[in-house]
Amino acid sequence: MADDDFVDVVDADELWDGEMESFDIGDDEVLVLKVDGEVRAYDGICPHQSISLVEGEFENGVVTCRAHEWQFDALSGNGVNPTDTCLKKHDVRIMDGVIQVRLNHAVTH
Ligand code: FES
After folding, report:
1. Atom 1 of ligand 1 has which residue's CA nearest to it?
2. Domains, the chain, ranges and CATH?
3. Dihedral pair phi/psi, residue 12, rounded to 5°
4. E runs forming strands in the chain
5. Beta bridge partners of 91
6. Are 68 and 60 in contact (CB under 8 A)?
7. Which atom of ligand 1 is nearest to the CA of 70?
8. CA dihedral 10, 44, 78, 61 (to 10 degrees)
9. Which of 50, 70, 95, 107 has a CA that sits 20 to 30 A from residue 86's CA?
């Protein structure tokens, strides 16, 4: 069981490179993805409107929202199109083969 507010979300082996999944942590939907061997966790809701990003596409390191096709760099969370936006990042780590997330409400990225 995780301490210091990190929460187990999924076995690291179950999330493949180029995959994204969403998880509910409390009232928050969190998008967890793996790209180039790196794991990232972001708010699961598009910063444009209230659409779940997991319903969109994840290709070539870019997450595309299904609603109006805003795009985000999966590694940095920065907006690709448009560029003046970004995904809110949560802390993520792998402990004993399990991906853990700590919600980061204070940081707006
Ligand atoms: S809700 Fe995601 S691009 Fe509009």
Report:
1. 49
2. 7-102 (2.102.10.10)
3. -60, -35
4. 7-11, 20-25, 28-35, 38-43, 57-59, 62-64, 71-73, 79-81, 89-95, 98-102
5. 102
6. no
7. 3
8. 50
9. 95
Round to whole Å and give the CA distance between 92 and 64. 21
Q: Is the pLDDT of residue 101 over 90?
A: yes
pLDDT digits (tens, 9 = 90+) for 19-30: 999 999 999 999
Residue labelled with tokens 């990190």: 6
Name the amino acid, one letter, at 20. M
* Single pTM value for the model: 0.92
> What are 89's strand-pairing partners?
42
Using CA atoms, how far apart are residues 32 and 49, in angstroms rounded to an integer?
19
Question: What's the CA-to-centroid distance between 20 and ligand 1, angstroms?
Answer: 17
What's the pLDDT score for residue 106?
A: 58
Give me the pLDDT at residue 53, please: 98
Calculate the average pLDDT of the chain. Answer: 94
For atom 4 of ligand 1, the residue with the nearest CA is 68
Tens-digit pLDDT profile for residues 35-59: 999 999 999 999 999 999 999 999 9
